[in-house]
Design a protein that fits this description.
Distance between the termini of chain A: 48 Å
Low-confidence stretches of chain A: 1-7, 158-167
CATH class of the largest domain in chain A: Mainly Alpha
Number of helices of chain A: 6
Mean pLDDT of chain A: 87
Largest sheet of chain A: 3 strands, antiparallel
Oligomer: homodimer
Shape of chain A: globular
Chain lengths: 167, 167
DNA sequence: CTAAGTGCAAATGTTTTGCAGAATC
DNA sequence: GATTCTGCAAAACATTTGCACTTAG
């Protein structure tokens, strides 16, 4: 009876639907802006931050532009709704990822190039459940960030000066 | 040959000494301010943030006051030196803890009262080592935050309205 | 002496917020 | 039609930084 064995999970309702339901329970409204934002957020599985999302939204040829404030407000709502979650902090910005229709997992984070590598180890959550139990703690969630150097960033010992990733 | 089995570790050199060594390797200087700061940081095992430290320093009857800028600058140095590390983020501030003379551990963080409970599970680091190996990733460190409700904050089901912790 | 450190005040950069007009239910 | 939203500009806030003066080595 494992929770999830595959890379993606079949979802009963679409993110938009789930969002609508959540909003309803809070007597909040499904506006054009909110719809556009969920859609854009779930258009790609990449990790993203608020600013990236703003830019992606700006490139859409939708009817209207969505303001930065609304993006921030929506991210908070989406997080509350359980559709999205903060993965980590990078360069002082919060990084988000899908938390719906996607199995529980954690990340290896490359300190040099910033790449995020996902991995899954059910034993971790199990172990944490036990730790929590021992402390009379009701676990809601966990965040595990493993920092270090990814394959590409630590392999070239000093062959040729690695191509810079700056410009 | 386990790394650490006890709640605290015997340390060869004092934090101040280790700091001095670190500074030396970087051609940096041990100033009065830096000395006061390490001392204050290691005067208590509590978790702390920059502001708390500034206040603690302000209460010392030392010769001179240490400026907020210097505290921030020093925290970064102490982190580089491996004396201190960021544990988590709370209310938009970075939380620090000792990373020297203290065994590897992780935290349960109460979402309501903010309490941090430390725990240790060597299996976690071992498991992560293996995951890293599988991905050709060179692990440097990890941060694991488990959020939820601590014993006190989740026990009173609704007996009496829990005393608020706000004022 | 010279390079490095400090305090101050101002800057930074992300995220939040007050408000007036716009839109949903 | 009332309540909730949005966009804008301004605010908030933790942290960083430029600069002139001090100080360690």
């Amino acid at each position: 009876m494992s929770l999830t064995d595959l890379a993606s999970v079949d979802v009963a309702v679409s993110p938009v639907e789930k969002y609508r339901e959540f909003l309803a329970t809070k007597s909040l409204r499904m506006t054009r802006e909110r719809a556009i934002i969920v859609e854009e957020v779930f258009a790609s599985h990449e990790h993203f931050d608020a600013d990236t999302l703003v830019q992606r939204l700006a490139q859409r040829r939708d009817s209207k532009r969505v303001s930065r404030s609304t993006v921030y407000r929506s991210l908070n709502l989406l997080e509350e709704a359980g559709l999205v979650r903060k993965v980590a902090r990078q360069d002082d910005r919060d990084l988000y990822e899908h938390d719906y229709g996607y199995p529980q997992h954690d990340h290896l984070i490359c300190q040099r190039c910033g790449k995020l590598i996902e991995f899954q180890r059910n034993e971790i959550a199990e172990m944490l459940e036990q730790v929590a139990r021992e402390h009379g703690f009701r676990m809601e969630s966990h965040r595990l960030e493993v920092s270090g150097l990814c394959n590409e960033c630590c392999s070239p010992p000093s062959n040729r000066p690695k191509k810079l990733n700056l410009l």
